[in-house]
Design goal:
- The complex is a heterotrimer of chains A (270), B (517) and C (639).
- Chain A is mostly helical and 270 residues long.
- Chain A is built from eleven helices and two strands, in the order H-H-H-H-H-H-H-H-H-E-E-H-H.
- Helices cover 61% and strands 1% of the residues of chain A.
- In chain A, strands 1-2 form a two-stranded antiparallel sheet.
- In chain B, helix 6 packs antiparallel against helix 11, helix 13 runs antiparallel to helix 14 and helix 16 runs antiparallel to helix 18.
- Chain B contains 20 helices and five strands.
- With 517 residues, chain B is mainly alpha-helical.
- A three-stranded antiparallel β-sheet of chain B has the order 4-3-5.
- In chain C, a hairpin with a 2-residue loop joins strand 2 and strand 3.
- The termini of chain C are far apart.
- Helix content of chain C is 70%, strand content 3%.
- The longest helix of chain C has 49 residues.
- Chain C is mainly alpha-helical and 639 residues long.
- The chains are: A mainly alpha (270), B mainly alpha (517), C mainly alpha (639).
- Chains in contact: A-B, A-C, B-C.
Chain lengths: 270, 517, 639
């Protein structure tokens, strides 16, 4: 690591160096946090932190415009849009973190570590030439002008072709999410016509009967003429034949009840 | 930064539009195609799109022919117009035309074309059934297809890493989408799409990382600039090594080389078969074109470093491809592993590092591309009530039921196996001899061994088709419309022609086999 | 080129074909087109198929005659032409020009093939009239003619090999024409397998040539043979001889020819008498530069010719089956040609001369045999024939003329050609001379026997036999061939035209005359007469319907001198021993290895499949591992 530090030291002044170590570490922590959090919202916030720190690094290097764009477009617009979507999907949804593949985590950790070590080992031995934006900025008289010259000059084709990428992305979003209506939306008028034309009972069905001794859903209501209204019992019960029968009370029973004799209590009105 | 900044005017970029005409035609058609989606009534869209697609592709071929022999850098030196670029672009365009024929087919499946009527509908839901019954189709396939072809045209011609990266994304993104649009087995298709997207993004990250490393080394994205920096730098530089390795990861992912191959069988199996055919051929051509350009133009100076790496990749790619293919029971997965193995064979041309290597690679890609398109076209024809019958057991005795289709498939399998008088033999011979001339004899020995194993599993399918008893309730072979029939005819014709009379194309490839820096 | 090699190689660089000679391709294209139409056209062409089938070889003959006339108009050294159609580059350095070469030698063959072929096609209209698949038959015959023409017109050995295999295929298909008969199917297979042995020789020879000379055109090989070692030339020569033995039914690969008589008689006449079986002779004469450079190989050619000559003649004496007796005769007569070819520049021309006259009279004999079969319910056993003279006058006369021709009786064609070979043989090797002379005697014997048993004597017909003359469409070709057999001698006598005609393409060297001409005539004709008179003495009497036991030699000859058994013991027995021991080796050692390998591959395959678990994160891990590997590889290489 000393090699790397010397490289940095030789080119960058102390203030920038401090900025680098602080923002760099924070960006890394943010990236790790994004990968490791269980909740999508947390991940989104972590990545916002990474982006802000990267923006700081850009600015510290003199790429002010890029830093600002990074904050405004990515952190401000894209990440917030992301958050909105996540809120819509449901803040509470979280991924299962149970790893089903044996050895996956260990292997991934080892491979990642090996990769990181190799990168560090190689980069720490590297001597860089011209670092920083000063040289490039000078050509067109500033960072912003230099960027413009590159985008609209040297990389014009790449810049234009990027539009193909954006259009593709838009079409992709349409394909995956958009649902064109197959038929015109039904108005209230259409709905009520449909209801009457179907020939079925247009209104709401009668509720089950409510009696002194029974008011469960399997007890049919009585129509004014005393017959059973079968459709007051849910169709599933009807299909099972689990409808209670409701007999007219016998005269003496009524008298018994009137006399306050509770001996019939607990029996069914069968 | 003190004081007044002196404003220097930005010079007007010099773009010779004629030299990138094929690119412009295809991208222009793609944009029009998007507008067609927006403004043409649903019933007429398909017809308009078909006319647009075929007209633009043919016009692009014509423009390309007009450019034949050009050797120049254009669009601020970000695009190279040279032999390999034109050859690869031509191959991509011709393969794309045949691929478009397969995509346009809609009489094989009784429900319509190979794509879901609406990707956003719940798989297997009521809405999907209604849409199918109403005969809806997702004509957005066409703009996506055209964008993808555009990306493929730019990819092998990019002369700087930034343009190359943009092209890579432009060609990949539509493919991720197209892979998820299969009409049958929607869930498998969506899973394939997601996997391809995730892993593709992962590989793009490596590519970008590598690009950054090389930029850090050379201070430029331009391939020629990197080469200059390498020739000026005598000492070792770790950044270059990192850059080479990481760029290679991104490119080898696209050509489906081991160990960056695992997406291939899953995606090939899940994607709609015409898309699989398109993907298996055009992506390979474009990606090998880019790989050749990066390795030869930018990194030719460190070839002693990357050659052993590609040796090892080629060896394990061929071996893993053929060995795993043996155990496959699904015809599309078998073809996927076969395509992995072929990526290994084509890498032999890359590691030759010679003009013969370039020429043989280009010839191999063209020959392999047409045979592969044909093979997948046949796969799309063998169906049962639930869609394509891809399980190998269902192909038993196919030769007795449909001798013509089984015969055509046999021809393609023989070409894959590299039997003489088919294009496969010529192309294998070409890359093998280029690799031997390039000093890669051990790799060629492994390649011959792998060819023998591969001949075994191709022969197994031929035996299965012609000598096994047909299964009860087996699949039937659907009579295709003119689209697929034409595609098959082209596939057969090219496969036989390149086997019997390979010389004209070999000559063309040899003439074209010099990169421009 | 030094003086030593100039003796061997004829450096005739042939001119490219233009003008009339640009029609060469048409010779092959016409019958090939006929075959394509007839075989692919299906039942639709049934009605007129046979007419098209006849038209194509006739048209081809007309073209050939046209080319012949054009060739006569050229000075001798400019008569050859090469028509370059395209380069068939199989890849890299292995490049074979697809070119046709029409020189004097090819011209002779083209005329023979198209002329005799046309006649036999016409004949087959009548002969195959009742065959439901007559159209297919004509398709196969056209295929044969096309392949045979390709064989003789090729300007390189590889293209010749294509034609060689083509005629083999046609022969296989036609021998097995009556495939519902077991014997025909077996015969076809036998011909196919024995021919493979010879073809193997030819393919090895071609590879050898490519390896040594870097090319396979006649020009390259002829140019290169001078500087090659004698050992190389000998090996190539021996391989070519093996090929010639297979195709031309020469010892020891002759056994298939007798069974091949299972095919329809026009096939026997065209393929197994007049043209295809002479391809071996063509090959040897065409490769004369190689054999000139390899005396050992040429000696072996002579020996093979001598053995075949006697071998075939003896078999011809004993067979009761008319066609098989004629097949023995074919083997014997081709033996004559091979002997002549084995004599070197002294004999090449005579080999071709005899090949031509043989093409006429042997085709005539077979057509006569076919006519006899046609008239007698396909009865071919001569013991059930006899006295056909009375009912089949035309057949009798034409067959008789051809018989006189083959026996070498002046002034018929066979007299001139055989006489020349005998004289040339005596001039080079007394042993060969004696053998050819004895052969002439035996020829007289067996042909007389055949003639007597078939046409003269008493009728030994069975009840269902009602012999009658064949229709005109059949007898006209027979008459034409008989005329050819009568006057064919004019090619060499009195003008020696053929010698001078073939001169640039086939070297000719005058041999020393030891005896005066009239003495030769007395010797050769006398020998033939001895054979004839002996046969008359034997078969003048009543011929028993059931064959008598006969002497040891007769019995052996009936069994084709145990050619099959010899082949079996020589090739099959060691083969079987080898097979058994190798099966043992195979089971224990090779299978162990192969099965082990298969198991390893299968195991690895299974293991790798488990890696393919369907989880994107697992795939990504593999990719990361791959990236680590690549970085490590590059960094390690650098360190």
């Amino acid at each position: 690591m000393t090699g790397l530090a010397t490289v940095m030291l030789s080119v960058i002044d102390t203030g920038e160096q401090i900025t680098f170590w602080i923002c760099g570490s924070l960006a890394l922590i943010g990236a790790l946090g994004m990968v490791l959090s269980r909740k999508a919202v947390h991940s989104a916030l972590w990545i916002a932190m990474t982006m802000i720190n990267l923006a700081c690094l850009y600015m510290a290097q003199g790429a002010l415009f890029l830093g600002m764009v990074q904050i405004i477009v990515y952190t401000g617009a894209v990440m917030m849009l992301f958050l909105f979507v996540l809120m819509l999907v449901g803040v509470d949804s979280s991924d299962s973190v149970v790893e089903t593949i044996r050895g996956q985590r260990l292997a991934a950790g080892l491979a990642g570590l090996a990769f990181a070590l190799m990168l560090i080992a190689v980069i720490s031995r590297v001597t860089l030439g011209d670092v920083g934006t000063q040289g490039a900025d000078a050509v067109y008289g500033g960072n912003l002008q230099g960027l413009a010259a590159l985008i609209f000059g040297k990389y014009l084709l790449a810049f234009e072709v990027t539009s193909a990428l954006l259009i593709t992305a838009a079409i992709g979003a349409m394909i995956l999410a958009h649902r064109e209506r197959i038929e015109p939306k039904k108005e209230q008028k259409d709905l009520s016509k449909e209801r009457f034309l179907s020939g079925e009972h247009p209104g709401s069905l009668p509720p089950p009967g409510v009696y002194a001794r029974h008011n469960a859903v399997d007890t049919p209501a009585l129509l004014p003429d005393g017959t059973l209204a079968e459709n007051s019992v849910p169709a599933s019960l009807r299909a099972r034949g689990a409808i209670r029968t409701v007999d007219r009370a016998l005269g003496d029973e009524v008298q018994q009840l009137a006399a306050g004799d509770g001996s019939l209590e607990g029996e069914d009105l069968r | 930064m003190n004081g007044l900044i002196a404003l220097v005017p930005i010079p007007t970029p010099n773009m010779d539009l004629g030299q990138i005409a094929p690119l412009e035609i295809v991208f222009g058609a793609a944009l029009i195609s998007v507008l067609v989606e927006a403004f043409v009534r649903r019933e007429g869209r398909r017809r308009v799109q078909l006319v647009l697609v075929f007209a633009s592709l043919i016009a692009a071929v014509a423009a390309l022919v007009g450019l034949a022999g050009t050797r120049t850098l254009t669009a601020q030196a970000s695009v190279a117009v040279d032999g390999p670029a034109l050859f690869m672009q031509g191959t991509v365009l011709l393969l794309a035309i045949v691929g478009a024929l397969l995509i346009a087919e809609r009489s094989i499946d009784p429900a319509g074309d190979a794509f879901a009527p609406r990707a956003s509908a719940l798989p297997g839901g009521r809405e999907e059934r209604e849409l199918t019954a109403a005969g809806w189709s997702q004509t957005e396939v066409w703009p996506l297809f055209l964008f993808c072809v555009g990306g493929m045209l730019l990819f092998p011609a990019s002369n700087d890493l930034l343009t190359m990266f943009v092209a890579l994304e432009v060609l990949s993104l539509p493919l991720y989408l197209l892979a998820g649009l299969a009409r049958r087995r929607r869930l498998l298709s969506q899973e394939a799409s997601l996997k391809y997207f995730l892993l593709g993004a992962f590989s793009s990250a490596f590519f970008l990382f590598g690009t950054a490393m090389l930029y850090g080394f050379a201070g430029t994205f331009s391939l020629g600039g990197i080469a200059d920096a390498l020739s000026g730098n005598a000492g070792d530089n770790g950044l270059v090594m990192l850059g080479v390795a990481l760029l290679a990861v991104g490119l080898l992912f696209k050509v489906a080389a081991v160990p960056f191959h695992q997406w291939t069988p899953d995606v090939y199996q899940g994607a709609p078969t015409p898309i699989t055919a398109f993907m298996a051929t055009c992506v390979k051509v474009a990606a090998f074109g880019a790989l050749l350009r990066v390795m030869y133009v930018a990194l030719g100076g460190v070839r002693w470093d990357w050659q052993p790496m590609l040796w090892i990749i080629a060896i394990i790619t061929m071996l893993v491809g053929v060995i795993v293919a043996i155990a496959q029971t699904d015809i599309k997965r078998m073809l996927a592993y076969s395509s992995i193995a072929h990526a290994g064979f084509i890498l032999l041309g890359v590691i030759a590092v010679s003009e013969a290597g370039i020429a043989s690679t280009m010839f191999y890609l063209a020959a392999y591309g047409f045979a592969t398109l044909g093979a997948f076209a046949v796969v799309s024809l063998v169906r049962d009530s639930s869609g394509e019958a891809t399980h190998l057991s269902q192909w038993a005795g196919l030769g007795k039921r449909s001798p013509v289709v089984a015969g055509i498939f046999t021809l393609f399998l023989l070409a894959f196996a590299g039997i003489p008088l088919t294009s496969g033999f010529t192309s294998k011979f070409a890359v093998f001899s280029a690799a031997i001339a390039g000093g890669a004899t051990p790799v060629v020995i492994v390649a011959v061994f792998a060819s023998v194993i591969s001949a075994f599993f191709y022969a197994r399918i031929i035996v299965l088709m012609f000598f096994a008893e047909p299964a009860e309730e087996g699949p039937r072979v659907v009579l295709p419309s003119a689209f697929t029939a034409l595609a098959l005819a082209i596939g057969v014709a090219v496969t036989v022609l390149l086997g019997v009379l390979p010389q004209p194309l070999l000559n063309l490839a040899q003439q074209a086999g010099i990169f421009l820096r | 080129m030094n003086i030593g090699t100039a003796v061997f190689a004829q450096e005739t660089v042939l001119a490219p074909a233009n003008g009339t000679f640009s029609l060469i391709w048409l010779l092959i294209a016409l019958p090939a087109l006929g075959a394509a139409i007839l075989l692919l056209g299906g039942r639709r062409t049934n009605a007129w198929g046979h007419l098209l089938g006849v038209l194509m070889p006739v048209a081809s003959f007309v073209v050939a005659a046209f080319l012949f006339a054009a060739m006569l108009g050229q000075p001798a050294e400019e008569r050859g032409a090469v028509q370059h159609l395209y380069d068939w580059q199989i890849v890299g350095a292995f490049k074979v020009p697809f070119s046709l070469q029409l020189d004097q030698l090819s011209m002779v063959f083209v005329l023979l093939i198209t002329f005799v072929g046309s006649l036999i096609h016409i004949y087959a209209i009548g002969y195959m009239a009742h065959d439901p698949a007559r159209r297919k038959f004509f398709g196969y015959l056209n295929l044969f003619v096309a392949a045979m023409l390709l064989l003789v017109l090729a300007d390189n050995y590889l293209l010749l090999y294509v034609g060689w295999e083509g005629v083999g295929l046609a022969s296989f298909l036609l021998i097995g024409w009556y495939q519902y008969k077991d014997s025909a199917a077996v015969a076809a297979k036998k011909a196919f397998i024995i021919n493979r042995v010879g073809d193997f020789g030819l393919s090895l020879a071609i590879m050898f040539m490519f390896a040594v000379f870097g090319g396979v055109t006649f020009e390259t090989v002829n140019a290169g043979i001078g500087s090659a070692s004698e050992g190389t030339a000998t090996w190539i020569g021996l391989l070519l001889l093996l090929a010639a033995c297979g195709k031309s039914a020469q010892f020891p690969l002759q056994a298939w020819l007798f069974d091949a008589m299972e095919g329809p008689t026009p096939v026997s006449a065209l393929i197994h008498a007049a043209t295809m079986v002479t391809a071996g002779v063509y090959l040897i004469v065409r490769s004369n530069a190689i054999f000139d450079a390899a005396p050992t190989a040429r000696l072996l050619v002579l020996i093979v010719g001598c053995i075949s000559l006697i071998w075939g003649a003896i078999i011809g004496c004993a067979k009761d089956d008319l066609k098989k007796a004629l097949a023995g005769s074919t083997m014997s007569q081709i033996g004559y040609m091979v002997v002549a070819a084995g004599l070197g520049p002294v004999g090449y021309v005579f080999a071709i001369f005899h090949l031509l006259t043989h093409g006429f009279f042997k085709a005539g004999l077979f057509l006569g045999a076919g006519s006899v079969m046609h008239a007698n319910n396909d009865k071919i056993n001569m013991r059930h024939l006899g006295a056909l003279r009375t009912v089949m006058m035309i057949t009798f006369v034409t067959f008789g003329i051809c018989t006189l021709a083959i026996m070498g009786i002046p002034p018929f064609a066979g007299f001139f050609s055989k006489d020349d070979i005998i004289k040339a043989a005596f001039s080079q090797s007394p042993v060969a001379g004696v053998v050819t002379l004895i052969g002439a005697g035996i020829t007289g014997f067996y042909m007389t026997r055949i003639f007597l048993m078939t046409f003269l004597g008493k009728a030994r017909w069975e009840d269902d036999q009602h012999p009658h003359e064949s229709p005109a469409v059949m007898w006209i070709p027979m008459v034409v061939l008989a005329i050819g057999a009568t006057i064919g001698g004019v090619l060499m006598w009195p003008s020696h035209w053929l010698e001078t005609w073939l001169e640039p393409a086939v070297p000719y060297q005058e041999h020393a005359q030891t005896l005066p001409e009239w003495l030769w005539i007395i010797i050769t004709v006398g020998t033939a007469l001895i054979g004839i008179l002996w046969a008359v003495a034997l078969y003048r009497r009543e011929v028993p319907v059931t064959p008598p036991a006969g002497s040891l030699l007769t019995r052996a000859a009936r069994e084709e001198l145990y050619g099959n058994e010899i082949n079996e013991t020589l090739t099959m027995l060691p083969g079987q021993v080898l097979t058994r021991s190798s099966v043992f080796f195979d089971n224990r050692v090779v299978d162990g290895f192969v099965n082990g390998m298969a198991a390893v591959v299968w195991g690895v395959s299974g293991a790798l499949r488990t890696v393919q678990n369907g989880f994107a994160r697992s795939y990504a891990l593999t990719m990361l591992g791959g990236a680590v590997l690549l970085v490590a590889l590059l960094v390690l290489v650098r360190l």
